[in-house]
DNA sequence: AAAAAAT
């Protein structure tokens, strides 16, 4: 079948290898992964911080929080005769001047990241093949598909031409914000298709049809707009699935996603499908390759997936009270200058319980989960993104994709396990959760709370799966170990 | 069971 190459720092520096007669082409190209400093949002957030300690010190930011570019290997497999040349600059991509301006002026980007350099030519070069793309957390996948959508839209044609489906409302909104910023000078119109009011209020029947050129939203709303013919698919050129492995998983949104895909393909056979995620387990990978035909693909080995710049630790604790004590005394007490913190829990009840405990102890924490009404969810995310709150307790609603550069510490208060089989870790969720820290190669730390033998077993499986040992904090009762850990992670 | 969104 297809041939596989790895892009490594040692591989050739230009172009692709010669065509292999009649079969597949190789992609073998070296790309530096010097991530662009995302200064725009950072400066804004820093200005609005009300806790001095939360601010990233402008003078030391580069040394302290931005690690060396990772030397990650991405496996690329392409099909057909189309040659792709990695884009070392955004100019290589034949973008409109308006779009380039958005990248430089609004986004403050300087050059494509590794995944961008490789995937963008694949997305933008006719005959516009489908693409399955895996890349590390925080490596700039959003830019890939947002830029892909913007560049393929015909600005003169006022109808939906690009559609992006995301697993949560929050992620849809975040992606929309990126799109609007990047596309600011293009005049391209966009609309976010997510539920607006809490519950049972079907206004969509009485709304005008969508004329926006790019639509981003959640499966249910999109499905409904399509079945009510408010969202036409006739001119659709690109269909993006963000967090694609989850969107196509059986316990994810497989049914909705397939339905949307098929409805589009029924009217429009040449709509390009782009699948992006940091994780694709074997089951999903196999399924996905049946869903899309004649696609290019980019994959990362699971052992290469944990971020180098992220230090992971485990803390052995005797009981639940100790968990709360550790959060309070070992982390919140000395965490004042370690940036923002997300504490992940497995259930809404666990979230509320922890929230109550910490508030009773006098800490200002906020909590988000799917049972809150939409207005509250929006408010809590906004406050956190604006730097008004330091500590956020969350269920897996924010496990994927949530991008807040100032998050340097993630706590797994509960370890993620599979629902069907509680003694199996949920490896993908683990990776996504910890990926909320260490965005764009920044330094970060993860604390995993281990309370039972079962927890310990789960943790060990995670360590061996990703082949990345997780250091143990010697004693939960002493401050020292936590200080050492945070220093080691570069946060203190 | 987290989540989306509808029944």
UniProtKB/TrEMBL annotation:
It comes from the Eukaryota. GO terms for biological process: poly(A)+ mRNA export from nucleus. Residues 326-481 form the Helicase C-terminal domain. It is an enzyme of class 3 (hydrolase). A motif (Q motif) lies at residues 88-117. Keywords: ATP-binding, Helicase, Hydrolase, Nucleotide-binding, RNA-binding. Residues 1-40 are annotated as: Disordered. Residues 122-298 form the Helicase ATP-binding domain. Gene3D superfamilies: P-loop containing nucleotide triphosphate hydrolases. One of its GO terms (molecular function) is ATP binding. Transmembrane segments: none annotated. Its EC number is 3.6.4.13. This is RNA helicase. It comes from Populus trichocarpa (Western balsam poplar). The lineage of its organism: Eukaryota, Viridiplantae, Streptophyta, Embryophyta, Tracheophyta.
């Amino acid at each position: 079948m297809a041939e596989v190459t790895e892009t490594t720092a040692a591989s050739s520096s230009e172009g692709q290898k010669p065509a292999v007669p009649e079969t597949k082409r190789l992609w073998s190209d070296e790309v530096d992964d010097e991530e662009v400093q995302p200064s725009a949002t950072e400066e804004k957030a820093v200005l609005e911080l009300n806790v001095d300690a939360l601010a990233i010190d402008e003078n030391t930011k580069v040394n302290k929080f931005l690690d060396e570019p990772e030397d990650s290997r991405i496996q690329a497999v392409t099909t057909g005769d189309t040659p792709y040349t990695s884009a070392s600059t955004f100019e290589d991509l034949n973008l409109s001047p308006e779009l380039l301006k958005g990248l430089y002026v609004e986004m403050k980007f300087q050059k494509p990241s590794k995944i961008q350099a490789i995937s963008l030519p694949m997305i933008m070069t006719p005959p516009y093949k489908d693409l399955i793309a895996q890349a590390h957390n925080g490596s700039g996948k959003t830019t890939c598909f947002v830029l892909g959508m913007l560049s393929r839209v015909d600005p003169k044609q006022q109808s939906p031409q690009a559609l992006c489906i995301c697993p949560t409302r929050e992620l849809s909104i975040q992606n929309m914000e990126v799109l609007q910023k990047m596309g600011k000078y293009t005049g391209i119109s966009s609309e976010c298709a997510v539920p607006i009011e809490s519950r049972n209020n079907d206004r969509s029947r009485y709304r005008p049809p969508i004329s926006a050129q790019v639509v981003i939203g959640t499966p249910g709303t999109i499905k409904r707009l399509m079945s009510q013919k408010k969202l036409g698919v006739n001119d659709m050129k690109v269909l993006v699935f963000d967090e694609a492995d989850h969107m196509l998983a059986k316990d994810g949104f497989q049914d909705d996603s397939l339905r949307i895909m098929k409805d589009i393909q029924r009217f429009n056979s040449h709509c390009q499908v782009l699948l992006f995620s940091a994780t694709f387990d074997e089951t999903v990978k196999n399924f996905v390759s049946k869903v899309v035909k004649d696609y290019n693909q980019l994959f990362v080995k699971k052992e290469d997936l944990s971020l180098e710049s992220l230090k992971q630790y485990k803390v052995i604790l005797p009981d639940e009270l100790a968990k709360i004590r550790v959060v309070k005394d070992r982390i919140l007490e000395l965490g004042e200058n370690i940036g923002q913190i997300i504490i992940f829990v497995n259930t809404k009840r666990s979230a509320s319980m922890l929230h109550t405990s910490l508030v009773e102890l006098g800490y200002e924490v906020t909590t988000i989960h799917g049972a809150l009404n939409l207005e509250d969810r929006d408010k809590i995310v906004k406050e956190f993104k604006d730097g008004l709150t330091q500590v956020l307790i969350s269920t897996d609603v924010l496990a994927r994709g949530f991008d807040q550069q100032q998050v340097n510490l993630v706590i797994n208060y509960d370890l993620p396990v599979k629902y069907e089989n509680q003694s199996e870790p949920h490896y993908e969720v683990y990776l996504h959760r910890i990926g909320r820290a260490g965005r764009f190669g920044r330094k970060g730390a993860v604390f995993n709370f281990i309370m039972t033998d079962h927890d310990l077993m789960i943790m060990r499986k995670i360590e061996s799966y990703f082949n990345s040992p997780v250091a143990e904090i010697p004693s939960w009762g002493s401050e020292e170990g936590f200080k050492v850990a945070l220093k080691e992670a570069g946060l203190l």
